Fold this sequence. Notes:
By secondary structure, the chain is an all-alpha fold. Helix content is 67%, strand content 0%. It has helices at 9-26, 31-35, 38-67, 72-100. The chain is elongated.
Amino acid sequence: MLVPSNHTALDLLLSKLLQHCLERSNSSTPAQARGGGSSLEIIYVLLMVGLFGFFTVGVLVTNLRSRGSPEPHDARGAAERWRRKDRQQFQARLLESCKLCCVLENQLAVEQPAAQIPEEKSS
Length: 123
């Protein structure tokens, strides 16, 4: 076989790798030697699916337990309790902000109608 002068080492490496793969696939190996690990592969896949299913069911059950049982007549009461609680929190915040407020009076800046403001005389 004539090898053209423009072949590189990479081309030779790839062609050898391709030939090696083809020889491996064409070789007549017993079915037991190739399929010996398949039982472990199946167990691994089943284990992963089981763990995923267990995790998913756990998340769903936790979500359902946190919601509780929805009852239509209780929704109005819950909304009213929520509004009352919100109103109480708003009033508490308003009172707290009023307690924090303080007014300082500047005695020099207070209006004094009897006193006149001194004016600068231009010279």
